[in-house]
## 1
Amino acid sequence: MKYDVVIAGGGHNGLVAAAYLAKAGRNVLLLERQDHLGGLAVSERVFPGVDARLSRYSYLVSLLPTQVITDLNLRIELRPRRFASYTPVGATGLLVDDEDSARTAASFAAITGDEKDYRAWRRFYGLAGQIARSVAPTLLEPLRDARELRGIVGEEEAWRDFFERPIGAVVDERFADDDVRGVVLTDALIGTFADPADLSLLANRCFLYHVIGNGTGDWNVPVGGMGAVTRALAGAAREAGAEVHTEMEVLAIDTSGEVTFRDSGGAEHAVDAERVLVNLPPAGLTSPASESEDKPEGAQLKINMVLSRLPRLRDSSIRPEEAFGGTFHINEGRDRLAAAYAEASSGRIPSLPPAEIYCHSLTDPSILGPDLEAAGAQTLTLFGLHMPARLFRADPERAREEAVRATLASMNSVLDEPIEDCLLRTPDGGLCLEAKSPVDLENEAGLPGGHIFHRDLSWPYAEDPADRGRWGVETEHRRILLCGAAARRGGGVSGIPGHNAAKAVLGA
């Protein structure tokens, strides 16, 4: 059979591309290896007998553009969070309340002793907002070069400090307090093993993608969990006429456009396509990837929990519902981040791992069954930093257990009671806690190195003059395009590579 487009991989970007192309009248076949769609944008009942649908891997949405939601008529709700973050500091803490600037200012003053860091915070995130408003629209357009994008940003101070100087040096220069510095730097390290002071500016690239989403940088809660986003995308693709199949593993992609795949019964098939869109990690296929690229390495520990109640805090001035209503930072001061990076670089699990926590059920209790909601249960997602895959290679089980123990101890060091006392138990007595290391993601989800962005994030502009005016999805083979996180301007749950791959096919 021959199709206009075959899409290898049914993650959210593949579904976005399928919906756009089918709406444009193209004959589209999408093949997914697993028995479900969405890749890592899924919701599951993780613990037997516990009626809580957790966003098991990805968990918040920022980069998904409103334009994609509108174009595809996606029936999803992304709910904002009032509190940006809370960082325990001794017996008090730093609260960033997006609806009460006076309360935020008072919190900064209590932690730092004056107003200087709060003024620096407002200036710094004012510049980040300028970049978000100017850069985000360009992510759905053909690539500009650095000079053109710099002109669009307009603000020289913003361009210099976000695109040209190491983010670590910028943060050290602008802020005096160690904890304030750390809160800023965490966005430069999510899923990225990097020194913020390194001249490679890898941390800067990670930071950019965490603060420019949809022109605001806001991180919103998908009502119903990530599975609701996937269901909406799959529905849009099928309604538009795309042919979508699960349990179909792509085995090979030929540069002529022939795609060989295996069905659930073990039989092999081949189809031809005018274009093939690869929504898989490039390292997972030999044809469209750059074989010379270094092997990717993820750097995170993900822990999912269901609690019988939220834990008590040492800070009596804030309710747990407020502290956990945004991002809850754990031992993420600038010095603690640097110490953890040094330990991990030397091959050791960090002794006091930095991490951040997010509570979905406070903003969206619909993921809980009625009995759990009535009982006051809550979900927690912990994302640990500086946990590179190399730490888990030799003995994945033992290393994961060690990492979990250290991370829970780190969490307990800032709480007024052990988190273990708040964990819900399954009907058979098991704790409602699961952990995923980069090696687990590699083995279970097929992500080389467990890298959640497929490979290191790139700048949102054309670094090679030949790429100016292209979509950032092209490969050396005309018929083969990237449409996943590894594309330029990829990474995260955004749909941007899927949109751009479709536009490249359509010649838009």
## 2
Amino acid sequence: MARNIGPVCRLCRREGIKLFLKGERCLTDSCAIERRNFPPGQHGQRRRPRVLGYGLQLREKQKVRRMYGILEGQFRGYFEKAAIRKGNKGEILLQFLERRLDNVIYRTGLATSRPQARQNVLHGHFQVNGRKVNIPSYLVKAGDVIEVRPTSRENPCLLAARETTAHQAAPSWIEVDRENLRARVLSQPQRQDISFPIQEQLIVELYSK
């Protein structure tokens, strides 16, 4: 399974915004954006050129793709599925990304970052509707119940994540039972549930060329 194994803090610096790939570290002074808010590389501290047109669209696509931890082929696949559906293509694309199992686990506070959620899913710590699921890209739907498997309920990593994210509010489309390490999908995610600054129309324009 292909995945990015390089230093993730460089990704945040390249996009010039926190992608929250390091969990709680992103909220401290150790965050790379706080310490070195310029692109990586030997020319990173030079004056940034003004980005317009295609460059702006590309950067927006890269930002969203890296935030959700998806490679280019899979990201384009999500867009192609969104393009054949009725409605706003950009919003439908974001719905696909939000419905990924690793993202849902992160959003419920059972992981401190999406990469950690992805790893825990791959290790088989979660089940959906009573059945083990170890595919991070699994798309949940309304009515699905996601919970930690009985054999993983004492896992130190999961328990630590629950305590660390105790202050984190779950989105309105997910009902979370933190005590029992369980969550239920109430409905499809809506655009207003995503507070992260995303201009999805730029991505639509990029792929529609």
